[in-house]
């Protein structure tokens, strides 16, 4: 069984106009899982609906506690990409389980989204990786503490571990 925690982020953004006014809507994760033909083996829990730039230390403590108290040894977390690496770093002390964070560069509601691929890839990563904390984005897996988002390139990249 995989525990899936949703926190919001671009994957769940809903845009209202051309000026990029948005809110974090209801998670499309159940729909993304169905489209990926994943119908069971998971428990979804919504923790919050926030853009990752709005996440606070208290929010990260909430995520940490949700992972810590989960009965599952494999956890998948949907998260905004801007501060995903920070949250992964906060989760590093829970290295006795496999924790995989993923998200999207484009909202799941958009036609050209990477959300479906990233969720499927993270699902596989959560099942196959050994214990540890990881980010799974766009076909690559990164260890917590050795990754950053390159805003200019709009992708994640490895850095020297801290």
Describe this entry's structure for a reader.
It is a single chain. The chain is α/β, with parallel strands linked by helices. The chain has a single domain (2-158), classed as L-asparaginase, N-terminal domain (Rossmann fold), CATH 3.40.50. It has helices at residues 29-35, 57-69, 84-91, 115-128; strands at residues 2-8, 13-15, 22-24, 42-50, 74-78, 98-102, 132-137, 140-143, 147-150, 155-158. The strands form three sheets. It has a six-stranded mixed sheet with strand order 4-1-5-6-7-8, sandwiched between helices. The chain has a two-stranded antiparallel ribbon with strand order 2-3. It has a two-stranded antiparallel sheet with strand order 9-10. α1 (29-35) crosses α4. The longest helix has 14 residues, at 115-128. The chain is globular and about 45 Å long. The chain crosses the membrane at residues 115-137. Residues 2-150 form the L-asparaginase N-terminal domain. It is an enzyme of class 3 (hydrolase).
Secondary-structure class: alpha/beta
Return the CATH class. Alpha Beta
Q: CATH superfamily, please?
A: L-asparaginase, N-terminal domain
What Rg, in angstroms, do the CA atoms define? Answer: 14 Å
> How many distinct beta strands?
10
The chain-level mean pLDDT equals: 91
For the largest beta-sheet, the strand count, sense and barrel status come to: 6 strands, mixed
**Count of separate structural domains:** 1
Task: Provide the β-strand percentage band.
Answer: 25-35%
Which sequence of strands runs across the widest sheet? 4-1-5-6-7-8
Reported by name, the CATH topology is Rossmann fold
Order of helices and strands: EEEHEHEHEHEEEE
The helix tally amounts to 4
């Amino acid at each position: 069984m995989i525990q899936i925690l949703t926190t919001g982020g671009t994957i769940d953004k809903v845009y209202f106009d051309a000026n990029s006014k948005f809110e974090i809507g209801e998670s499309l994760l159940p729909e993304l899982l169905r489209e990926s033909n994943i119908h069971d083996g998971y428990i979804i829990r919504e923790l919050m609906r926030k853009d990752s730039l709005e996440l606070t230390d208290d929010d990260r403590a909430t995520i940490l506690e949700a992972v810590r108290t989960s009965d599952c040894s494999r956890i998948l977390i949907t998260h905004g990409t801007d501060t995903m690496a920070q949250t992964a770093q906060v989760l590093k002390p829970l290295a006795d389980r496999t924790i995989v964070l993923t998200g999207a560069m484009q909202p799941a509601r958009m036609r050209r989204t990477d959300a479906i691929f990233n969720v499927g890839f993270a699902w596989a990563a959560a099942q196959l990786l050994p214990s540890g904390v990881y980010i799974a984005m766009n076909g690559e897996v990164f260890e917590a503490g050795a990754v950053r988002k390159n805003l200019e390139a709009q992708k994640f990249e490895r850095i020297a571990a801290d």
